[in-house]
Design brief:
transcription regulation, about 75% helix, transcription, FadR/GntR family transcriptional regulator, two-stranded antiparallel sheet, single chain, WH_DNA-bd_sf, mainly alpha, elongated, GntR_C, 11 helices
Length: about 220
């Protein structure tokens, strides 16, 4: 079992056993990590995941609390899990991205302007290894939008805007649960951009295929 998964299970057990009740505040991070035999990093990632599905509520400057856990509050989280685990449409959107975006990257490799290249370089430099998941996903969306714009094809830009929005939640969940997601995304973005800057259409196509396929493969395994 992955360390983050183990941490999630242990916190869940504290809640289901009644040790932590709705509205209760979790012990301080260092104390809870020591008590559960976990690293603080694993505990932190588990808290992020449980916050995403509305089980925990992080109140900055105050602490982390168990939510009310009532059915209305958890409804959004249930819909989220149904989308990921039972609805093949998310995977179909990733398939469409995998079919389209490598060709878009290849077009960008021969059409990109110096100004567009400079803007994309700024995006890659803005993303650091300790970036928050929301920042990672927002950066990723802007990066792919920028490459689509560099292709010079307005129709492609419109298509990818809709498709990228449909896969956003899956990318957030991957960022929360998969170790090294930020570093991997940064390395892949840099490789794609290096290929585009070199006007290497084959390399741009290959790196973009690998980038999209990585998320798609993770999602298939997570279902």
């Amino acid at each position: 079992m992955a360390l983050t998964d183990e941490a999630i299970v242990k916190i869940k057990d504290m809640i289901t056993s009644g040790e932590l009740r709705p509205g209760d505040r979790l012990p301080k991070e260092a104390d809870l990590a020591a008590r559960l035999g976990l690293s603080r990093n694993s505990l932190r990632e588990a808290v992020k995941a449980l916050t995403l599905v509305n089980v925990l509520d992080v109140r900055h400057g105050d602490g982390t609390y168990v939510t009310s856990l009532d059915s209305a509050h958890l409804l959004d989280a249930l819909s989220f899990m149904v989308d990921l685990h039972q609805d093949d449409s998310v995977l179909q959107f990733f398939e469409v991205r995998r079919l389209l975006e490598p060709g878009v990257a290849a077009l960008a490799a021969v059409r990109i302007s110096r100004e567009q290249l400079a803007e994309l370089r700024l995006l890659t430099s803005d993303l650091t290894a300790d970036a928050a998941i929301d920042d990672l996903v927002a950066n990723d969306l802007r990066f792919h939008r920028g490459i689509a714009e560099a292709s010079g094809n307005a129709v492609v830009c419109s298509l990818l805007d809709g498709i990228s929005g449909a896969t956003q939640r899956a990318r957030i969940w991957r960022g929360v649960t998969q170790a090294g997601a930020v570093e991997r995304t940064l390395a892949e973005h840099t490789a794609i951009l290096d290929a585009i800057e070199a006007n290497d259409t084959d390399a741009a196509r290959a790196w973009m295929t690998a980038h999209i396929s990585g998320v798609e493969t993770w999602l298939r395994k997570a279902r």
